[in-house]
Structure formats: C-alpha cells, structure tokens
C-alpha cells in the first residue's frame, strides 16, 4: 500500500461525524464507512456514559467501605469519584489491550495477509472509541475544575493520548501501537489506591507500603520497559511505519517519546516516594 497524500483544499475535505477533516491530515479514504462512523460514535458515547455511571456508583458505594467518605469536603469527594471511573477505564482498556496484543491473532506476525500496521477489528475500534469517550469526559472535568483534578501535565497527557487514539481510530492504522500505550493504564489503579489510602489516613498501613512497591514495579514494567519494547518494535517494523499517512507517521515519531519522558519524570517521583515510605516504615517498627 502506497502512502497517499492529498492537498488540503475545500474539495478534498470530508464530513466525518459532523466535523470537516482534511484528507491530507487524516487519510480515511477507503476505511471510513457510514456503518463504521456510527460504530465509532456509539463507542465514544458509551465511554462517556460509562464514566458517568461509574462516577455515580463510586459516590454511592464508597460510604459502605469507608465511613470517612461522608466527612470529606466537596473537592475531595469530586476527586474520589473521578478516580473511581479512572480506575475502571484503566482496568477495561488494560485487559482489552492484553487480549488483543497477546491472545488474539489480530496483530500477530504472519497471522494475516494485511500489513500489521493496517489491521483493525470491530473489537479494537470499540475499545478505542470507549477510551476516547473516557479521555473526553476526564479532560472536560479537569478543565472545568482546574487545577483541582490535575495540572498541565495531565492536560498534556490526556490531550496527546486522545490525539493519537482518534487518529488511529479514524484511519485504521497503527492500532497495535495505540494498544501498547493503552496497556500502560494498568498502573493507574495503583496510583489511585495510593491517593485513596492517603485521604483515608492510612499512609502508615502495610497496604500503603505494598501498594507503593506494586506501583513502582508495575510502572517499571508497563511504562518504562514496555516503552523500550515499543521503540524496538517500531524500529524493526519501520518498513510498515513508513506506509502510514503523513500526520500519523510523524505523530508516531513524536508523541510516544513525549509520553515516555512524562513516564520517566513520574517514575522518578514514584521512586523517591517509595524510598521515603520504606524508610518511614522501617523506623516505625
């Protein structure tokens, strides 16, 4: 398949989900159909609804497990519930990514005649749509309550993630690399549990220490080692990478390194926090 380039003109723009997308930016010619467009839209909507439902459920069931929840101020309750659907999304996409990458034949070398960089399925499109809905919902909350739910680093992370996911969903290309990155969300529940334990005044508990160790190891594997494999995989399949449409090609060369840098910065903070926690736990014995 030869990489196509289309000049950005009024006649070369198409209407996708009500948005004019120049073909020179996202090449979806021959991939997008009316049924796929509806599928994508419903998946994004499902992701937003999922966030809303889990947000409400988190607020409803939290007092059953943590009596101090009712004493939290409104800002703490807001973040508590927000982290509830953040954890749920992370578990869903991490499990789906693990299945699509390792168990299914979708991205396995030699499993299909189609180039690996161009492989998609109804399941992969659904997960990407749901994840897009999550990032839209969470980013909207971050902006609305800024900076209560996170600073500019979260805006950058969410913005870049959504930028890459939407491109891959609409073009049908490079989904394997999107799912590699989405698997890194598997560390999010550990991050959220640490925050929950902190708010619940359980920083001196064994669970806090164990969670800190699990977060450190999980981050090392899922966000450091996996990104090293990510770059190795891109290098070894660069003949296929070059066939991606222009914006996607350059995004693959720029977005992952930025996310990797963010992961390294956060990993450094996690490591320092773990050392501090272990020292404190040793002295309290």
From TrEMBL:
Bilayer disposition of the protein: Multi-pass membrane protein
Signal sequence residues: none
InterPro entries cross-referenced by the UniProt entry: TLC-dom, TLCD
Domain TLC, residue spans: 75-279
Domain of life of the source: Eukaryota
A Pfam family annotated for this UniProt entry: TRAM_LAG1_CLN8
Compartment annotation: Membrane
Major localisation: membrane
Record's keyword annotation contains Membrane: yes
Iron-sulfur in keyword set: no
TM ranges: 12-32, 38-66, 127-147, 209-235, 247-268
Keywords tagged on the record: Membrane, Transmembrane, Transmembrane helix
Example GO BP: lipid homeostasis
GO cellular component: endoplasmic reticulum; membrane
Protein name per its UniProtKB record: TLC domain-containing protein
Organism field: Anisodus acutangulus
């Amino acid at each position: 398949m030869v990489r196509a380039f289309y000049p950005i003109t009024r006649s070369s723009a198409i209407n996708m989900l009500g948005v004019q997308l120049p073909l020179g930016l996202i090449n979806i010619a021959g991939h997008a159909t009316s049924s796929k467009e509806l599928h994508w839209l419903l998946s994004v909507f499902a992701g937003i609804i999922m966030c809303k439902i889990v947000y409400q459920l988190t607020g409803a069931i939290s007092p059953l497990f943590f009596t101090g929840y009712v004493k939290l101020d409104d800002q703490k309750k807001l973040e508590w519930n927000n982290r509830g659907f953040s954890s749920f999304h992370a578990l869903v996409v991490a499990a789906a990514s693990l299945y699509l990458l390792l168990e299914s034949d979708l991205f396995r070398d030699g499993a299909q005649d189609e180039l690996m960089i161009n492989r998609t399925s109804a399941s992969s499109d659904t997960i990407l749509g749901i994840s897009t809905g999550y990032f839209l919902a969470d980013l909207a909350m971050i902006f609305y309550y800024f900076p209560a739910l996170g600073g500019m680093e979260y805006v950058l992370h969410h913005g870049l993630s959504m930028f890459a996911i939407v491109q891959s969903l609409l073009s049908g290309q490079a989904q394997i690399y999107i799912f590699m990155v989405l698997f890194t969300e598997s560390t999010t529940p550990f991050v959220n549990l640490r925050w929950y334990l902190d708010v619940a005044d359980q920083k001196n508990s064994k669970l806090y220490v164990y969670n800190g160790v699990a977060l450190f190891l999980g981050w090392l594997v899922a966000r450091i080692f996996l990104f090293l494999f990510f770059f190795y995989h891109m290098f070894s399949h660069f003949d296929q990478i070059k066939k991606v449409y222009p914006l996607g090609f350059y995004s693959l060369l720029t977005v992952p390194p930025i996310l990797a840098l963010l992961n390294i910065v956060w990993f450094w903070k996690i490591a320092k926090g773990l050392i501090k926690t272990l020292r404190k736990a040793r002295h309290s014995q």
